[in-house]
TrEMBL record:
The protein's name in its UniProt record: Enoyl reductase (ER) domain-containing protein
Keyword tags: Metal-binding, NAD, Oxidoreductase, Zinc
Family named by the database record: Belongs to the zinc-containing alcohol dehydrogenase family.
GO MF annotations, alphabetized: metal ion binding; oxidoreductase activity
Pfam family name, one: ADH_N
Keyword Oxidoreductase: yes
InterPro entries: ADH-like_C, ADH-like_N, ADH_Zn_CS, ER, GroES-like_sf, NAD(P)-bd_dom_sf, SDH-like
Keyword Glycoprotein: no
Residues making up the signal peptide according to the UniProt record: none
Length: 386
């Protein structure tokens, strides 16, 4: 029996009084919903280096969705590209967009068909929603779905907000000993895990990582967890190399941006490795970095391009092909969150040292956070605590 039919059967008031009460209840319910929506604020990217905290109205909660209070969110390199240029590779911001996608939070509400999660669960959110119907999705390579809706990737709004609505199957419950910040770090860590899977990293694979920014460092952590015996990492920045060494790199090599020095630097890299380089990960994506990777990797080895700084590159592909060097690419990740959470839970990977700066969720702080992340320097992972 519904609330209204119960009231009608037990209330002896006249019909117009009962109707009035029903209308009042409906209006109060709608007012409460409107008030809740108004309290949901998000960081909107309105133009180049123009972020504003403004109201964000969420869609209705579907039967298979959950509403999540976002508690931790990290700034990604793609977020910085959007912030600085309103684009990242071929993804162009053409209208105001909520930014952000590396996030974790607490379940506030669940849809009627959700059985795997309950209110109060702490979860990491996988930010990409694929169509589930195309060939890539059916083959299990859903990260390649042409209809992917990915938090903070135009035109899809992101998750730097008080609350978001998301499919329940893309929300992964955090183990008790994994913090919300670590849960948010599952997103960048997934890139490193996916790259290691694609390149078949194992205890017999010696690895070169070019670039010790956030993605280079999570690739280092993932490669160690996959058992790689020796890992050499390069960068132009001495401070980031010191962090890589602290995180377990076998050797570090400081390089330059001068393409004329590739041969000399390849020799130094190979000397630092002390044996053949089986797999190279280019976590930058420039002509020089890819040329270095191709020249440094042994015949029959693999080069995995992770960084996508340029849409076009000029590289010595013919000599690499003559040595049967495989070139593979990755785009985001797929089916990685359970393994990431296992690595974090068991202590095989510790992402906490990567979080160098923390900010709250205010207009002043979001501006400071993005300027800090865009400025580089000592910043590795900039994290919001909401």
């Amino acid at each position: 029996m519904s609330f209204f039919s119960f009231r009608e059967e037990t209330d002896k008031s006249t019909p117009h009084v009962v109707l009035h009460r029903r209308l009042v209840i409906i209006m109060e319910t709608q007012a409460k919903a409107d008030a809740e929506e108004e309290t949901n604020m998000a960081a909107w990217l309105l133009g180049i280096k123009n972020l504003k905290i403004q109201p964000y109205h969420l869609p209705p909660l579907g039967p298979h969705h959950v509403k999540v209070q976002v508690k931790a969110l990290g700034i990604c390199g793609s977020d910085v590209h959007h912030f600085k240029t309103m684009r990242c590779a071929n993804f162009i911001v053409k209208k105001p967009m909520v930014i952000g996608h590396e996030c974790a939070g607490i379940i506030e509400e669940v849809g009627t068909e959700v059985k795997s999660l309950v209110v109060g669960d702490r979860v990491a959110l996988e930010p990409g929603i694929s169509c589930g119907r195309c060939r890539h999705c059916k083959d299990g390579r859903y990260n390649l779905c042409p209809e992917m809706k990915f938090f903070g990737s135009p035109p899809t709004n992101g998750s730097l907000a008080n609350k978001v609505v998301h499919p329940a199957h893309l929300c992964y419950k955090l183990p008790e000993n994994v913090s919300l910040e670590e849960g948010a770090m599952c997103e960048p860590l997934s890139v490193g895990v996916h790259a290691c899977r694609r390149a078949n990293i194992n205890p017999e694979t010696n690895i070169l990582i070019i670039g010790s920014g956030p993605i280079g460092l999570v690739t280092l952590l993932a490669a160690r967890a996959f058992g790689a015996p020796r890992i050499v990492i390069t960068d132009v920045d001495e401070h980031r190399l010191s962090i890589a060494k602290m995180l377990g790199a076998s050797e570090v090599v400081q390089v330059s941006t001068d393409v004329q020095l590739v041969d000399e630097e390849v020799a130094r890299i190979q000397n630092a490795m002390g044996c053949d380089i089986d797999v190279s990960f280019d976590c930058v994506g420039y002509d020089k970095t890819m040329t270095t990777a191709l020249n440094a990797t042994r015949a029959g080895g693999k080069v995995c391009l992770i960084g996508l700084a340029l849409s076009k590159m000029t590289v010595p592909l013919t000599p690499a092909a003559a040595r049967e060097t495989d070139v593979i690419g990755i785009f985001r990740y797929r089916n990685t969150y359970p393994l990431c959470l296992d690595f974090l839970q068991t202590g095989k990977i510790d992402v906490k040292p990567l979080i160098t700066h923390r900010f709250g969720f205010s207009q002043e702080e979001i501006e400071q956070a993005f300027e800090t992340s865009a400025g580089g320097g000592n910043a590795i992972k900039v994290m919001f605590n909401l």
